[in-house]
Specification:
164 residues; alpha/beta; eight-stranded mixed β-sheet; 5 helices
């Protein structure tokens, strides 16, 4: 399977917005994006920007689904936003009917994806967000599968530190 990794320095919230919007514009039906990082790393902020790239009418409706586990949004492609933070196991994640979402016509965005990694499809994009300052972040994008590797070539942010 084709794989690729890049690391992007996001100097501020606007850089995070540009990354998310570029990804949203390029995502495709049945895309799966896993988001990883500590509390406050900007996972939900990035999801909101991805939703903007998917032409959601009002990105302010995008919120963390921590307590409801799944949020669905209408956009150019349906958006399925999951949060695995409160789940006790990958079995609980699978019990949500996740495989139906993964094979559907929408885009699946999974926060805390590291907690349910083996339940995710083998072909996917993982984004690890790390805090580097008050509003700056580093995003490490790991693509598995040809369609996702193509996403790494997008003009996503002003400063790509190094392809791995």
């Amino acid at each position: 399977m084709k794989r690729g990794t890049i690391e992007i320095e996001l100097a501020d919230l606007e850089a995070t917005n540009r990354l998310g919007q570029a990804l949203g514009q390029a995502l495709f039906p049945d895309a799966v994006v896993g988001l990883v990082g500590p509390l406050g790393a900007g996972k939900t902020h990035l999801v909101r920007a991805i939703a903007e790239g998917l032409d959601i009418p009002n990105s302010r409706v995008v919120s963390s689904p921590t307590f409801v586990l799944i949020q669905e949004y209408d956009a150019r492609l349906p958006i399925y936003h999951f949060d695995a933070y409160r789940l006790g196991s990958e079995r609980e994640f699978l019990d949500l009917g996740i495989s139906e979402y993964f094979s559907g016509a929408g885009v699946c965005l999974v926060e805390w994806a590291d907690r349910v990694a083996s339940a995710l499809p083998a072909e996917r994009l993982m984004i690890d967000m790390q805090v580097t300052g008050a509003t700056s972040r580093t995003a490490r994008l790991e693509a598995s599968g040809a369609r996702y590797v193509k996403l790494l070539a997008l003009p996503q942010a002003p400063s790509v530190s190094h392809p791995c």
